[in-house]
Amino acid sequence: MVDPGNRRMKPQENVPVQLVDSSVHAARNCLGMSGDRGEPSMFSSTTSPAFHTVRRRGFSLAELLVVLSIVLFAVTVSLLAYGNYRKGATVRSAADKVRAAMVQARYRAIASGLPSAVVFDVDNTVIWIDDLDEDLSPRAPKAVAPEFLGDDVIIDLLRINANSFNSGVQQVVFRPDDTNPLVTVHLRREFDDPADDENYYSVQMYPNSAEPRVWANVRR
Known about the structure:
Shape: elongated
Strand content: 25-35%
Largest sheet: 5 strands, antiparallel
Number of strands: 11
Number of domains: 2
Oligomer: single chain
Helix content: 25-40%
Distance between the termini: 123 Å
């Protein structure tokens, strides 16, 4: 019998010791280790492929110019879109005010049995409502307070039946029998091209019509 206390591990007979040492040394080099204790080598980052770092390439001048061109294009388109939106919003708001004043004057005339009028101060771009007597003289001047149509907005044309006005103070009379003249108001921004119909909003009310219409980007 073999004494268990005297058992010893037998070395692998078929593996040369020199080959084992070479394998261990190669493994340590791959891991960037050196010495018997496996300590990191001060040259491991340059001698071991596992620790090689990849250098990042910066942007070229051509790439930067392309990016700047795209950004400038996007900004330009945004500014143009905002300008068109602001133009439409400003003049549209003025057109809605004119339309609302016409509707209110008509209802006031029907309710009171006496005429009412929308008064246009064309030069100052202001409108208000007067309640009138039967002879069309004011019985309640500025019964509805004056309203400014906007800083940049102008009344380019006020047409009452066959008469056209672009200055002065004019009134559009609404009667209690629900009759009124043919009324057309052209509005635009002061610094827009007056020859371009796209810059206009038109408010139009036909005789015996209950509701005025607002037309965008057109002169009617």
